[in-house]
Each structure stands twice: as C-alpha cells, then as structure tokens.
Amino acid sequence: MTVVLFVLLPGVHLLDLAGPAQAFFAAGDLGHPYELRYVAGSPGTAVVPSAQGLPLAADADWPATTADDLLVVPGWRTGEDPRAWPQVGDATRERLRAHHAAGGTVASVCAGADALGQAGLLDGRRCTTHHAVQDELAARHPRARLVRDVLFTTDDRVVTSAGIASGIDLSLHLLAVRHGPAVAARVAREMVVYARRNGAERQASVMLRHRSHVDDTVHRVQDLIDAHFARPLPLADLAARAGVAERTLTRQFTRATGVTPLRYQQLLRLERAEHLLGHGATVEAAAHAVGFRDARMLRRLRSR
C-alpha cells in the first residue's frame, strides 16, 4: 500500500495537515487506499504542538519508504520573527533528500517549503508558498525559483502549495496524476470542496485548469470524459448524454473551458501518458494505455 508520510514540525497548522490527510483518506474509501503515517521532523519530539493548541502524537522513528510513497511537510505558524521558524533535524533533511534521489515525490504546504529548502530540494526548482512568507522564503533560499501568488507548483517531483486550504488543491492534483481526473473529482465531491480552483498561471493538472467555470452542462460532460478519456467518445454521444445538440455542446464547452471536447480529451490523455513515461513506460506503451492506436498521435501532441 502506498504510504503518505506527513513530516510534522512544531507549530504545525492543523488545516495544512488535515486537508491533504482527508483527501488521501477519502481516496481510500473510493478504492485507492493509502496508509497515512506521521513522523516528527525535529529530533527528540514525540508530541508535536500544533499552532491551534492541539498536541499531535507522531512517530520518532521514520518508517521505510519506497519511491511510490509520498512525503508531505505541512506548514507551521510563522509569526513575526523569522528566527523562530523551526529547524529541520539533520536526519529529516537527509531523509527528504534520499527519498527524492530515489525517485520519490516530496511535497509541502505553506511554510513547509522551507523544510524542503533546508534539504536543498528547492535549489534551481520552481516553488511557491503562502503569500505572507514569500519574501522570507526567497531570502532564505535564493537559488529557488519562487513563483508568487499561485496555488501550487510542480518541478521534478518537488510539489509546493500556497498554504492552508491550497494543500487540498495540491492533493487533488496528485490524486489526478496517480489515478486519473475522475478519482480526483470524486474525492472533491466527497470532501464537499470546490475542485476547480486555478492559479494565475498554467498548472499541471488538466482537470483544475479547465474546471474554473460554472456551466453545469459542461461539467457533466467533463465528468464523462474524465472517467472514460481512454475510450472513443464521439461528440454525438456526449451531446446526447448532455441533452443538447452537437453544435450547442461544442459552443458551450469551448466558451466555458477554452477548448473543444476533443481537445480536452486529448489533454487528459497527454497528461496521463506523460505520467506513464515518467515512470519508465515506452512511448508506444503509454500511447496504447491512454487510447491512441499508435504512438504517432502521442508524439505529435507532445511536440506541440
């Protein structure tokens, strides 16, 4: 079972932790189980105080992890004095580096990006954090490529989010990449959260990038495409399921999302194929897995 290991530091914000934990827990209820584990990021700490006053029990010893597992560092209360930010233990920094070097993904919420920076994982990579601590993060880690005022960034298996509720957006993105957009959408509905938020720049998740509208008809069609993007989906069938004419559907879909239904399906296929390629699949195998007859169309789409 895939492990999501939360690295807790003193003053951790409860929502930075609870939002992602709930998202992965909900995925388990939908048939994609995760084992949630909690470890103290500072030495000699078994009970981690939260910013909201609730003490959190955490393991002192790190469990064994594999490249398929996910390490997440929730943020903490930063306060007015940056010198009071918690120091990540040497062992924790090494664990974060080693996990990434072994092919694993590391993520942070809010000020948790500083922990990744202390481990050297932000050097030369795009990252973000809460708007209130962007300047401090940039000063602490001048080699990081800070992206301001976006919900989350991804760069070479280093994923950072803006903070507080945006940790949920980050988690939905990771679930979409791992299991497809339909699973992420179901998790969002289960959590009763708005799954279509988007940042100021182009994000990696197709679902989030093209769901920032309020057209219910188009959302229903997107639900169908999300769930069956690897299959042939004739426009006539989509229009019939939506109860509108083909021309009407194309016009509404393009107005709401900026792309046609076919282009949306291609983007979902391309996103999934890129994930498979990143995990060692050949172009031919990835193309067939996402519904292309051969690799030529996938190569053409990637070249764009």
Automatic annotation (TrEMBL):
It comes from the Bacteria. GO terms for molecular function: DNA-binding transcription factor activity; sequence-specific DNA binding. InterPro entries: Class_I_gatase-like, DJ-1/PfpI, Homeodomain-like_sf, HTH_AraC, INH-QAR. CDD domains: GATase1_AraC_1. Pfam families: DJ-1_PfpI, HTH_18. Residues 1-23 form the signal peptide. Residues 219-304 form the HTH araC/xylS-type domain. Keywords: Signal, Transcription, Transcription regulation. This is Transcriptional regulator.
